[in-house]
Amino acid sequence: MLTKAINRIADLWSIKNSDLGAILGVSPASISQLRNGARELSPETKEFELAQYLARLFHSLDAMVGSDDRAAKSWLNTENRELQARPIDLLKTIRGLVACADYLDGYLGTN
């Protein structure tokens, strides 16, 4: 179920496979397998935990922009003064992924 959600998020946000691999910390081959359904995210892995953070970020951002996918993509690709970077660039590190999720949760008052 999480694998399908991550694939949907990648599609909605136009995240390239190479970037998705960097976000989840897996090889391009693993991303290809995830994207074509040949592999599922396994709950006992680090990539599963990172995928959970990405899903959390998706839900928070979706709530913030009222399910407007264009607005979400714009937020991801625009320099954020408080985060001091484009969120899409920050997602490629664990610290950045967590910072973006925490930022949105704080914005929504769900912390």
UniProtKB/TrEMBL annotation:
Pfam families: Xre-like-HTH, Xre_MbcA_ParS_C. One of its GO terms (molecular function) is DNA binding. It comes from the Bacteria. Residues 2-56 form the Antitoxin Xre-like helix-turn-helix domain. Residues 60-106 form the Antitoxin Xre/MbcA/ParS-like toxin-binding domain. This is DUF2384 domain-containing protein. It comes from Gimibacter soli. The lineage of its organism: Bacteria, Pseudomonadati, Pseudomonadota, Alphaproteobacteria, Kordiimonadales.
